[in-house]
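Researcher: Predict the fold of G-protein coupled receptors family 1 profile domain-containing protein.
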Amino acid sequence: MSSSDMTIIYQMATINLFKIDGSIILILGNLGGILNLCVFTQKSLRQKPGSIYFIAFCISNFLVLWFGLFPFTFSYIFNIDLSISHLIYCRFRTYTLNVSIILPESYLILGSIDRILITSRNALIRQRSTYHLAFLSISIITMIWLLFYIPIWFYTEIQSPVPGVKICFFNPGFYALFMSYSTMFIVGILPPLLMTIFGFITWKNLQRIRIYPITSDHNTTNLSSRDHQLTRMLLLEICIAIIFSLSGSILYIYTQVTANINTSLEHQALNYFLLSFSVNLVFIRACLSSYSNFIISKVFRKNCRKILVKYFLSYCHQRFNEINTLQITARGTILRMRPITTMN
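Model: Structure tokens for G-protein coupled receptors family 1 profile domain-containing protein follow.
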């Protein structure tokens, strides 16, 4: 194949990556996310502080799908990119994309710290895992990232690197360089490193505990069954996040290193496809949460069945009432329309 043919192949692969795969990820991600929220907001689970981190994680995954993936999918399906025609939307999209990508990993790190507390040998340390700490930690880390990315509103513009091509990106200079390296470190290196450390500590603690109702004995480590299930779900989420984050980071570093080495159109198209694929890994990871929970947790599967049966029975009951109402209305109409005969 010629160089121009390969360039076209890479461009079509990039388009289909968001047009076809993006649509599938949106559907699966939203269905799974709704199921996740339905399960973790149930009374039996939301009483646990660990569930608060899972709820925040689920909500942040929704943000990733709707503020991150949906604009890409919409622009490729309808060939309309509002980010290159409206500056405010350009900055809003860049800001929400960066914030939404970093939030899920941050909540997983907070959740892993909570699991370290709850699986500690010391009962006094276990008691530090509270609702107040969960809400406070989530609020603080969310505010930090919202403030950290505020400069995007001032250093992002609609640019034209070559005639006839417009992009929404950071202004060339210090901030663009800062965002390139900070994204590589904050998103690609630091979260997997912290999750690996905290996840390993949690796993080690989990190996030496007993699954019983928590007691006040300082010399034993007891863990409730539901906390044990939440810990297993979190460890699997951490493994998935590490795999996808490291894979995306490797691809991102490769595109940045080779960007100035080979400037041919074919290589640029390949780099753009790899960069798009690395971003797509973030979206794939965001839609896997409920399905991984379903595989690893018996409690989650049990709650899923209860929810599905509940809504199915509710739907059947509603349809049954609607049919009865229609039948009663039809009988009443027939009775009113029946002719009245009189005897002469």
